[in-house]
Amino acid sequence: MMDKSNAHEQFKKFLKKGKHRITPERFEVLDFALEYKGHFAADELYIKMKNNDSNVSRATVYNTLELLEQCDLLAKRHFGDNKKYYESSFNRKNHDHLICTKCGKITEFSNAKINEVVDSICSQLGFESSGYSFNIFGRCKDEKCENKE
Ligand SMILES: [Zn+2]
Ligand SMILES: [Zn+2]
Asked: Who contacts 102 (Cβ-Cβ below 8 Å, separation ≥6)?
C-alpha cells in the first residue's frame, strides 16, 4: 500500500479553496484512482469500485475525477479513440506514450529531450505550458499483436 496521506492533504486543500464539499466519497474515489494500475476510463474505475462494494454513484466518480485532474493528482490522457483516460500523477514522473493501433497496448516512456523541445517552443512563442501530451501511434512488436491480423 502506498502512503496516500500527502495526496489526501493536497486534495483537501484544493476542495476547501474551491469551496467544494469535502465528502468521504470523494476520498474513496481518490484512493481507488491512485491504486489503479495504468490508464483507466471513468467507467472502468466506477465498475472496479462497484466490484469492491463501494456505494459511490457514477456521477460522483465522474465529477471527482475532474476535480482530481484540476488539482494535478491525476493526468487526463487521450489515446486517439475519443475516450478520456486518467492515470495517477501522484509521485510519478512525467512520461509519454506509445499506442498500438492494432491491439491497443500502451507503453510508457520518458525522454528528457521532449521536455527540452517543449520548453524551447514555449519560450520562443511566449507561451506558458500547463502540460503537454505526446503520443506515438503505430504497431507494436508483441507476438500476440502480430498474430492478430
Ligand atoms: Zn499491438
Ligand atoms: Zn501513462
From this structure: 139, 140, 145, 148
CA angle 139, 108, 89 (to 5 degrees): 145
- Ion ligand 1: residue ranges with CB closer than 5 A: 100, 102-103, 105, 140, 142, 145
Kindly report, residue by residue over 32-90, the tens digit of the pLDDT. Answer: 999 999 999 999 999 999 999 999 999 999 999 999 999 999 999 989 888 999 999 99
52 C-alpha to center of ligand 2: Å? 24
Instruction: List the domain boundaries for the chain.
Output: 1-92, 93-149
Return residues with CB closer than 5 A to ligand 2 (ion).
87, 108
**What top-level class would CATH report for the domain 93-149?**
alpha beta
| C-alpha 126 – ligand 2 centre gap (Å) | 28
Q: Which class is domain 1-92? A: mainly alpha
pTM of the model: 0.85
